[in-house]
Specification:
Blueprint (H helix, E strand, L loop, with lengths): L5 E5 L5 H11 L4 E5 L3 H7 L11 H8 L4 E4 L2 H7 L2 E4 L19 H13 L3 E6 L7 H10 L6 E6 L9 H6 L4 E4 L3 H11 L8 E4 L1 H32 L3 H9 L20 H14 L3 H28 L8 E5 L14 H11 L3 E5 L5 H12 L8 H9 L1 E3 L3 H5 L4 E4 L11 H7 L5 E4 L6 H6 L3 E3 L4
Parallel strand pairs: 1-2, 1-4, 2-3, 4-5, 5-6, 7-8, 9-10, 9-12, 10-11, 12-13, 13-14
Helix pairs in contact: 1-3, 5-6, 9-11, 9-12, 11-12, 12-13, 13-14
The structure holds 1,4-dihydronicotinamide adenine dinucleotide (NAI).
Length: about 475
Amino acid sequence: PIAVKKICCIGAGYVGGPTMAMIAKQCPHIQVTVVDINQQRIDEWNSEELPIYEPGLHEIVSECRGKNLTFTTDVDETIRDADMVFISVNTPTKTFGVGAGRAANLEFVEKCARKIAEVSIGHKIVVEKSTLPVRTAEAVKTILSNSTTGASFDVLSNPEFLAEGTAVEDLISPDRVLIGGENETAINALVEVYANWVPRERLLTTNLWSSELSKLTANAFLAQRVSSINAISALCEATGADVDEVSTAIGTDSRIGPKFLKASVGFGGSCFQKDILNLVYLCEYFGLPEVAQYWEQVVTMNDHQKQRFVNRMVRTMFNTVSDKRIAIWGFAFKKDTNDIRESAAIYVCRDLLMEKAKLAIYDPQVKPEQMRAALESVMQDENGELNAMKRELLDNNVQYCDNGAAAADDAHAIAVLTEWDEFKDCDFEAIRDSMKQPAFVFDGRNLLKHADLCDKGFTYFGIGF
Ligand code: NAI
């Protein structure tokens, strides 16, 4: 058996950082080094202000950093030294060429494989941690087999199932850890790493392709549940049914289960849409157009849900939001993270801006420059340019606020776009008095207490009733 002593992880992002911090914490006998080509990110991991916000993460990093957890840009040296190398780089949707808008861009993964082939000596276990299209390991193996250093390699697939916002919890007690591979010895080496804290019955081993495909499938199923309940929310609004009541009623059926049945303004995050589109692309590639169309509807429904939300706001506010101040509560794609990738808030804000609304945005963890950059990027044309009208809207019609009450001050409406806990405990009477009347609330997360807000004189709209 191979006993892993040194781990290198390429990619110090939302996955690489927390997963490696957890391995370092649980395995004091293993030296864990996270490398990245982004100097600023590495500097942040070495500072008191980590590049990502996750409850409990700071404590773990502080505990292990300087002992068996290191963050560095010294990529070559760290790979050469390691017994096991994780590839945890980004795999965004391709924006150009064949498969643009659907296929995963595997440029960064391929560069990692080439780098590992170039600098390795001896034997290494290479672990795919990034979410990858099924059969990527084939390409990784081919690249590694062309190494001219005499090194030998095993390739494993070990997709990550953590959810942002609960990364630490998910890593401490995962529902399962999935390890796909061909070589028993290599699989066991990784099993033994996780067995330091994960019960053995939760360590699932499969062949490489099942492991790669399971990650895309898991995300497709999760997103499909959200789109399914969101589709029903539209029907609820049309008929007088209440989607939260419907969710409870169906979720108590043990075959359906209660989780991931919350209607909302739509799912966001870097993964769901990207992974489904990747699945759609794969189905088309393998000659399965009906299967592709089936999954694509999940994304179509999600886009529809965001548009429906904005349309309802405009329609309710007497068919115009032009020049009206609207408080945007929350910009992150979900609570307890500072990640805004594909956040529904970006698209809702863009569409409200195009209606010439004046936005007052507040999020407890997202910095104004992040929000500005995200809005700019969705308002640019195909050449990456922002026309004068849109630039003016971004400059003059968006204000970034320090708290929810400040955003709501003098506003016609509040739009709740992220389910941050702090929004539940606001002084709603004071907020109502500071707003224009009627004071509208559009709760895109069904977060606030409906009856209570109505009692306090708000005109309240949630999702799906
Ligand atoms: P990220 O964008 O936060 O981090 C990726 C990092 O890799 C960046 O810091 C980038 O500079 C670095 N990088 C890129 N190319 C490199 C190279 N050649 N050498 C060294 N560093 C390089 O991405 P994130 O969110 O951590 O995702 C990574 C993978 O994990 C993706 O495939 C994603 O689909 C998957 N995943 C993400 C989850 C999430 O919640 N964010 C959950 C589960 C899987």
